[in-house]
Every structure is written in structure tokens, then in C-alpha cells.
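Inputs:
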Amino acid sequence: MSAAEPTPVAAPRPAVRRSAGGSAGGHFTPEILTRARELIAVYPEPRSALIPLCHLAQEQDGWLRPEAMAEIAGLLDITPAEVLGTASFYDMLHTEPVGTHVISVCTNIACLLDGALELLEHAETSLGINAGGTTSDGTITLEEAECLADCDRAPCVQVNHRYVGAQTNESFDRLVADLRSGALSADIPAHGTLIRVRRSTGLQADRSRVAAERAAMEEARARRAAEAEAAGGGAG
Amino acid sequence: MAITDPPKIITSRVGFDDSYTLERYLATGGYEGLRKALTMTPEAVAHEVDQASLLGRGGAGFPAGRKWSMLRKDPVTYLVVNGDESEPATFKDHLLVERDPHQLVEGVLIAAFALQVSQVFIYLRGEFALGLERVQSALNEAYAHGAVGTDIFGSGFSVDVVVHPGAGAYICGEETALLESLEGKRGFPRIKPPFFPAAIGLYGQPTVVNNVETMSNLPWIVQHGGAAFAALGEGRSTGTRLFALAGHVNHPGVFEVEMVKTTFHDLIHAPVLGGGIRHGRELKAFIPGGVSAPWFGPDQIDLPLGQDEVADAGSMLGSGSVVVMDDQTCAVRAAWRITKFFSRESCGQCTPCREGSGWLERIMERIETGSGRAEDLDLLLDACDNIAPGLTWPPQQTTICVLGPSIPSSIGSAIEMFRDEFLVHIKEGGCPFA
């Protein structure tokens, strides 16, 4: 082996990557795709947008479909396996279909002390499913959750990650009826929609302008320091 | 002991229905701290925070001013705000992001100016759907108001703030796991050294990571001076702090109280705070600072709410969450549920934590459900000892992060304080409280 030309130990990655996604693209609607590109643009490294893009995919489909993961991989220039490998770490990213309403019942310590296990048992009986399951009509998925940080309203319940306050067996059944009838749809969007507020355009500082202003700022800072020194005392 | 009546430093607005709007924020002195900070030098702003000796409110309690000054030698590239509040029974940041998002934004901007950082990320746990919307709305309003973006308030200082949602993983509250997650990866904590965020943080660059509550204190500190903040509290525990009180009390909730001057007894029993134990029952035990902390019994209720005071007594103030258990509570069941939590949330990188947590959970479950064995107590302690050798406090570290060594706390406390209950479970083949 010549020293000047080391043998490559692996094929160049991009060649492996893009093709691994198969026919990536075309799954997202134009609106979702626009928002995905907006999200990618706010990060210094595209991959940082992975979780926000997974949330966006769930907003479109209700869960994280393989086609969506492939398209995310294409947008971020990574492999679909890397998307799946990351997404599968997180409880909120569902790589299997879930119901329109994901009901999370917390049973962690504060809720446990307020009867959360009994509430979960009631929920399982009344919905006819075990925690982790989805009703046959596809409307409700029930989850046993870890602490949701609403411990003064225990046992704490969220629907699609929106707090609905402490629940009794009776109020839980009413909640389910209201979800099914659509009475709560204004407050609780279908599963997957997480952030309904979009970042105002133009919020991101232009990089070259930031650099120029930063230089000016440092100059001003040096000037202030020099002035402070001339005045005979340091800051503070 | 009388309860002091300190100024409301971070909960002054939460009583208003529209507390999260820019209109309300501006009507109550909002963005005045930032305006003042922008007339000062960044060093002078950092100096005020140092003077306040504000201890970080995330759990570890490291002084914020010192964290910042460690970075003076290298220019900081990123400021990351930790709002992945997931320590069980901790719900103070929930209040701050939903009820006063502008205060958080202002605090973040002050910190960014003091550190001369032009890129900030606010990482909020994904389950805060409303909080994420509130903080994004606040940023949009602040941008329109000229407080965020290029040349803020005409000062020449430019900064961009990005709200980043998590996706449900307790471990991402650990700062290096949070950075991994923010880079679009699984939330695996990084080994320290060398991966101290101050040296090698986000994208390998020097990064400051501060908690939501820590940031929310900054507008007040800049406006009133670090000395005014430090005048409250006692010793190292200065200022006021939010305590999240949950469990068997009459008024669970988040309370802002003066540190050290207030005791656990005040917090639990004072009519304006916890209002006493529910249904006239007696206190059995309480957890002083999140489920990673060893438990306290009624004899320790007069301890002050101070970081060093609680540490000296063998536990920690941690994330400021206090869980109260009354005399009808099954200690085995409580410790089992906490163990199950750690088992579910272990990231799986380190063997003692990944294997140990599941093993402990299964033993705890069989004791609670009536299949416990006589040798199980020793087995529990032996497994705990393999995760945190010697079962000391603070625990010995056998893993990359502190999640693993936190697992034995509740089991150790429950066995130490309520050994008889374990024995009854095993002897009678079931839970005596069921």
C-alpha cells in the first residue's frame, strides 16, 4: 500500500445513505414539507430538526409511518434506520399506529398516592383494552405514563399531551364520551398535533449581520473597558 | 417558626388570567430588566448574578454565576435552557412556562447578553404542549416588540431563540443527554470528563445549560441587584425558591418561599402553604427533593428548606419537589413504583443501571404482590450495593450519569425506615394496606 494513497476502509457514506431510503419523498403534503424545511433552517446542524420533524410527521399521519421516516431521512441526509433508531427511544414518537386520542394516565408517585392505579384499572375496564392498547374503532389509545408534571391535580391525565385535570372514574367516562363526540376538539387536536403556534418568520438573526454586529459589540466593549480604566475603576 | 413574607420574585404574575400575554407582562414591569442589562456591560450583568449567588434550580444546585464564569476564558457558543422537567413530583417549571413565558424569555435574553451568545435553545419536554405554544407565542410577541432577533432594543446585540420540543424521555433532563437529544439523537448521557458542556457541549462547542427557574429569576435580579436577592435566604441558599408540594396534603401546589427561613413543617402544615395532612391523618414520611432523594421521617420535619441543611441531613433538596405520604401509605408500594419508574427510564447504556433497575423492580413487585421471599431484603440491598457501592449519600458513581446511583435511594430509605412492613408483606404473602 502506498503511503500517498491510503485504501479507503468504507464506501463514501452519501452513496449509501440516500439510496437506503428508497423512494424517499412525496409522502409529506406541500404544507408539511414547507414547515419541515422551515424547521431545518433554524438549526446550525440539520439533524437537530429530527425530533421536531417526527412531531410534524405525527401531525400529518397521527403516528410515525415508515414512509415519513424515509422522507425525514432524505431531508436530513441520514438513513431511515437512524431516524427509527432515534425515534424509538422516545415515548411520544409512535412507530405503530395509535388512536386519534392518546390518553395518558400517570401512575407515578404523587398520582399513585391519589389512586392512579385504581383509575388506570377503571380506564382499562371501561375502554375494554389494556394500557398500551387501542380501542377497536381506532379512537382511543390508553397509556400508563410516567410523571407528567401536574402533580397538584392528581391523578393526572393528559389527552394528546394536553392536561385535562385530575380525574375520577366518573369524570373519566365523561371525558371519553366527550372525546368521542368531538366536544373537546377545539382544545384537544387529534393526536400528533403538538405545537399549533408557528415561529414568526424573520426571527432568526441573519448570520453575517450577527457576525458584523458581534464585532462592533466587541469593539464597543473594549472601548467601555478602556473608558472604565481611564475613569479609574473596573466594572463592579 | 413564622413564615417570612418575601417579595414574589418569580410568581408575581401567575395570579392574572392573562399572565402569559405581552400586554400583561409589559404592564407589570416586563422587559425592564433586559433594557437595564443592555445598558450595562455583559461582565457587570454576570457580576450581579454572581452577587446573587443564585444556585441552579434544576437539581444539582450549582451556582449559576460560577457556571458562567467557568466559561469566561472560552467564548461561549450556545446557551441551552433545560425545561425537560420530568423528575417525578416536580411541576414548578410547568407553572413558569405556562403562566409566565415572557419572564423566561426575558431571563434567557439577559443570560444570552451576559454570556455574549447569539444562539439560544429552549428545550421543553414534549408533554408540555400548552407550554410549548405559550413560549413560542411569547417569543413571537417579543420579536414583534423588538426584544428578540437582530439589534434588540437598538442595543446592537442580536440573538436568536429557538424553542425545541422533546419527545418523552426522563433522561433528557440530564444536561449531556439533553444536548444529544438536541442534536437529534437518542438521549444518551455523555461521559464526563471530557464532555462537560462548558468545554465540549452542543455540536462540540462550549455551552451553558441552565434550568427554566434559574433563568426566570434573572429579570428580578438585574432590576433589583444581586445583593437584594442574596439578602433573602441564608448561607449558600439565597433568595426565594419554588417548591412543588404533592401527595397527601390539603393544598398541593407550587409555592414560592424564602429559602432556609422556611422549614418542611411550614411548607407542609402552614394554612397558606400545604395546609396540613389530608383527612386529619399523621405524617409517615416525605421525600424532600424528587424521587432520587432519600426519604425523611416526621423527626426531620423541622429542617429548613436549604440546600446545605438538607444535604447535611443525608438527602437533597434536588429539584424542589416534596412528596408527602400519610400513615395509610404502603412504603413498599411507593418504593416499588419509584423503582419501576427508573427501570422504565434507564437509557440502557450502563449495565448496573439497565440490569439493576429491572432486577430491583421485579423483586419489589413480587414483595408487594405477595410472592416475596425471606432472602429478598438482602438481595435488594446487595443489588443496590452493586449500583452504588457502600450505599453512601451522596452515592458512589458506577455509571455515566447519576440516574443509576439514584435508584437505591427510595429502596434504601424504605427498608431502613419501614423494615417491618417488608417483613409483613413477605410473611403474610401480600400487602397489609391493600
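The two ends of chain B are 37 Å apart (CA to CA). Flag for discussion at group meeting.
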